[in-house]
Amino acid sequence: MPLPVLNGWAKRWRAWRDSPFRRATNEAAADADRTLWHVGSIVLLVLLVFKTVAQERLVVLALQNATHLMLQQGLALMIARRRETYVRFRELWVLAATAHLVWICLNSAFHGGTNSLELASGSPLLLLPLLLIGNTGLWVALYMLHARLLHPVNLAALPLLALPALACTSRLCGRMLAIPALREPMGPAFAALDWLALVPLSPAPLSPPVTDGTSQCIILNVWALLVFAVAVPLHILGRLERRARRLFWASRVEELCTEQCGRPTPEAKAEAIRLLYVPCATAAELLLFAVLAWQAARTAVVLLRGGSP
Q: Which tens digits make up the pLDDT trace of 76-97?
């Protein structure tokens, strides 16, 4: 790789690492993170004691999932004792905790004694939210929306965090469809989303009909992850960061003007513009992505598995 390219990447990395906006954001978020780690560990402890151990008698699974509780308490302790270290590497700690959360959620989905997806029995409207709970999409989105890491980190991290659940889609659907009552809402939910995704592109299906329950479940799961665990959080976080940068830029430019007797230099103006810029999709682009993601997932499953039994 050419040396100028590496030098350019290194320069951008240093600019991001030493960004005043990044430091201010991480410092301001540390106390909220500490509260999240404490509350999350208490909620997890209650679930492990009263559900996993008392109700399901799965002691080994409870001990495995308790490692996340210890991780949360360790991060809370770091904020209290080594705040500067936490703030400096906050992205690393948040992403490590979120990746570990993905693991314990999938571990519980495959080895837990009860299946929360049973709550959707007979209701297509409840199927998608409960699917997002089972495939980790909801928890990843909530963690990342709370953390509000900077856009370059979110852009790389959210797709990577969705990969484990995407890789386990067949197993998740196998566990889901093992409940006979869930096969009834699967068809109507799939048909409704299939129709909504086809309307903007064509009045007729672009690929053969999908009638196999497993194929329908895989398409629903993949689409839900791509849209609600990746695209929607990226959209929301981008808008929140753009607003935060505008507020930070306003205070920053006032400081620059004061330092330079009311006449900022061109370099100061360029810095203010850089602080303000955050690429963010529009609502129309987000909707288009949702339609295209459905069509891509549908076409891939039809080609790889076939649409009918």
A: 999 999 999 999 999 999 999 9
